[in-house]
Target: non-specific serine/threonine protein kinase
Amino acid sequence: MGFLKKQFSTYLLNTILFEVVVFSWLWLHVTCLGSMSSIAVSYGDKGSAFCGLKSDGSHTVTCYGFNSAIVYGTPSHFPFIGLTSGDGFVCGLLMSSNQPYCWGSSSHIEMGVPQPMVKGAQYLEISAGDYHVCGLRKPLTGRYRNISFVDCWGYNMTNNYEFDGQIQSISAGSEFNCGLFSQNRTVFCWGDEVSSQVIRLIPQGMRFQKVSCGGYHVCGILEGVNSRTVCWGRSLDMEEEISLIPNQGQGGSVELAPNDPMLSVVGGKFHACGIKSYDHGVICWGLSLKTSTEVPKEIKVFEIAAGNYFTCGILAAKSLEPICWGVGFPTSLPLAVSPRTRKCFSEPCPPSYYEIEKDQQKGLICKDSNSHLCVPCSGVCPDEMYEKSGCNSKSDILCEYNCSVCSSPECFSNCSSSSSYSNGDNGKKSERFWSMQLIVVVSEIVFVVFIVSVVSITAVMYVRYKLRDCECSTTALNSATRLNVGSSVQKDNGKIRPDGEEFKIRRAQKFTYEELENATSGFKEESIVGKGSFSCVFKGVLKDGTVVAVKRAIMSPNMQKNSKEFHTELDLLSRLNHAHLLNLLGYCEEGGERLLVYEYMAHGSLHQHLHGKNKELKEQMDWIRRVTIAVQAARGIEYLHGYACPPVIHRDIKSSNILIDEEHNARVSDFGLSLLGPTDSSSPLAELPAGTLGYLDPEYYRLHYLTTKSDVYSFGVLLLEILSGRKAIDMQYEEGNIVQWSVPLIKSGDIASILDPCLKQPSDIEALKRIANVSCKCVRMRGKDRPSMDKVTTSLERALAMLMGSPCIDQPILPTEVVLGSNRMHKKTSQRSSNRSASETDVVEGEDQRFEFRAPSWITFPSVTSSQRRKSSESEGEVEVKIEGRNFVGGGDVLRSLEEEIGPASPQERLFLQHNF
Ligand SMILES: Nc1ncnc2c1ncn2[C@@H]1O[C@H](COP(=O)(O)OP(=O)(O)OP(=O)(O)O)[C@@H](O)[C@H]1O
Model:
């Protein structure tokens, strides 16, 4: 960008040159609503007025305008040092006594010399606000030289103010005043702060040349060659019922001063204007009334003064005549005003002064007609300009834009506009300029686009890099689920890879078949601890003495299915790590053998405890232990949904998949049916739903709409199982389906009748009531109406705390042992909060579904050979029905309520539902 600009600048330097004549006076007094100057403008109900010191050198004042009290009350014979004005009045600093003298129609300012007056007080400067005027006393000498006094008269201000330190100048705002300390050049303000806040907002550590107040703001010109302007305060009085618009080309806030170097600034009610130091042009900013006239273009002025909504200046080029803009200014001003800085010399102007040209001297008379009327030369040229010719007795310094270092819009526009005025081949130069400018603009756009692209690409790559583990995992699973058993190769995106080669097995150890055979004493019958749909589970002892459970895939004709589930579980368990998930220790894959090695769960499954023949075992499962297990299982599932990356939907939550370790902690097991998500939510479900009868989410079955809420449904059934001690489906009862039986009872408030009769009811069943309510919400027909697992966990934790008699049910009793083996990119946004109110203990209604998706196309459900299978658990001989298809028979009311909620079922679905419920 800089390179292009440089080329452009060089080009401009060679082709464009134009000149700007700059006038400047080294010292001009600042004016505000009424700071002292050779001109003053009054405003208010009685009309505006313009007063100026006559140009004949008499220092007497003449006023014009609509306020007759000012115009006719003008003390025309008193010479004044300077003038100031406010709402309906004008004051002048008398040359004879250095005291203020005021006239006009103000009810706050006395006509004549304002009283009370400190005897003998002489003033260096006076300045008027809306309804008051202040005078800066001449500096004291001797031991009081470091004390300054300011006397004020008028509304709310009549007082003598004492300040430590010498004050260089003062300026009055609407109802406040500011001063500038001579020594450190800092600004201080006093008076009413409420509407302006100018005291609080004073910029710290800045040194000012001048300061000037407006209605509710202050502007100061900073020290230094740049003479930058800084404004602060509130430009807008909220109580004003007037419509204000930003000044043309400038921001709406008066605090946003332009960067141009300034000679002086003045403040109106909501606006400010300044004289630019390099060309004496005027620039205004802030807010003005809609009907305001703009600053006349290309005027050059010696001095300016601001009223409330208008500003007046003394034209430098047109016989020193006044000119005003804004709203409500006095019109037809025939007055020529002498610049306060003019001097008459008998000799030609001395160094740093130059003579005002004769044609501009109309009306400006020196006492001696042979004298030379001189004014001070301007200071130095601003940054973007250079001094083309210096100050001499006949002319001011001449500054010219240095087009090679343009940075401001003014500089650019001046440089460009000058091209059309340069002599010779003007047209061509202009054309070249604009074509060059076009090139520059296009180049800049291309450059910006390039930078944005580079930054975006870098950001995307960085994010991808950070997410690489997550993606890898998906890929691995993707591959795993596509694996074809029976052939030693698999296809993935057209690439042929050796079977299982790319599995990312991190912690799982690879065992030989022989090792596991030895550990289980040759897989003998006595070692079997359980049987699943596709596997037998054996207890075994490894060489190092570790007791393990070895899950051996049943050798079936459907090898592809076995292998698929084997790899799904292998892959999932390898990447998951949580205190309440069953840990995978290793695996073996040799020939047709598929074996997974787990930690051994000494106390079997929750199903065995709840529904086993051993009554003692069931009774051992007291309420606290049951709810503890529920909380732990909930945490495990919550981890799968919220923390695992990618999130995992278990799909087969049931009591036989909740195992219990030596310390009676629950572990969620059996990931054979688990799916990873989320992925492309628009992908249709590839195959049929799977799960276990009684636990299966009806919405998932009906609509194939798989979400984490499907697990929530199953978990709800599990909770009902824990509370009632009944199986999910138990045909020995009239109401065989646990949901159908218990939910109406819970809803009617009859909790006691669903509680397990094997256990004594706790004295306070409130905790169990809460759990029952949670389970009801979990088994709602629509997934989106069910709570998320984190909400369920929180509710259960609180219920457990209650059950254990914890004084503070907001604090979970069990530590949350989330061991994050996978990254937390998918960590839920709604973290459980321990400081929720007790009223929130119930799960939130209408919870959003965080990982709602349709199963992606790459997921293949276990293929179905039989629509319904019976699985016998070796250890308990119980019967559990597992479904993977739709061919079912049976009946029930649930179907009706489901139909009411999610629409009528197809004949096939009706069969399933009738059978299932
Ligand atoms: N790590 C283990 N420690 C002790 N017993 C276990 C272990 N894993 C499984 N079991 C026992 O083996 C039984 C069968 O487990 P498995 O995970 O193979 O099948 P399932 O989940 O019960 O049935 P399905 O696979 O059809 O869903 C369990 O119910 C449990 O009793």
Summary: DSSP finds 17 helices and 43 strands in the chain. Residues 426-466 form the longest helix (41 residues). The first strand starts at residue 39 and ends at 42.
